[in-house]
Amino acid sequence: MAEHHTSLEDEAPTKRPTRGATRLRQLLIRRARGEKTHVDINVDTGMPSGRYTNVFKSYLGMLARERISILTPYFDHVTEVDREMIWQDLLLTFDIPNVATLK
């Protein structure tokens, strides 16, 4: 009987899937042209809705990762300056109706 020995060196290492960068190319192209992407926000729940809901959520997540430390335990601990920077960026990028009632 022939024995088959396999070692870890014989096997190719498997690569774990990783998340790629969030590009949001179309959103950034529209923003560069001065166009805003429309998103509806439910005033009562604060939840986005409509065609660009996922784009809005992705962009907001990207902003949060860029501007808020991962060590910040709660959004209540984010400085007012950082909150205002994120809000202004959202207003430049998205057409959000009823903006006054959201803030």
User: How many H/I helical runs?
Assistant: 4
H and E order: HEEEHHEH
Any low-confidence stretches, pLDDT <50, length ≥5?
none
* Largest sheet: number of strands, sense, barrel closure: 2 strands, parallel
Q: First CA to last CA: what distance?
A: 76 Å
Overall geometric form: extended
What level of helicity do the residues show?
Answer: 25-40%
Structural class by secondary-structure content? mainly alpha
User: Mean pLDDT across all residues, rounded?
Assistant: 84
β content, as a range? 5-15%
Strands, total number: 4
Strand order of the largest sheet: 1-4
Give me the Rg, rounded: 22 Å
Written description of the protein model:
The strands form 2 sheets. The protein has a two-stranded parallel ribbon. The protein has a two-stranded antiparallel sheet with strand order 2-3. 40% of the residues lie in helices and 8% in strands. Helix 2 packs antiparallel against helix 3. The chain has a domain of 68 residues. Strand 2 and strand 3 form a beta hairpin. The longest helix has 15 residues. It is mainly alpha-helical and 103 residues long. The mean pLDDT is 84. It contains 4 helices and 4 strands, in the order αβββααβα.
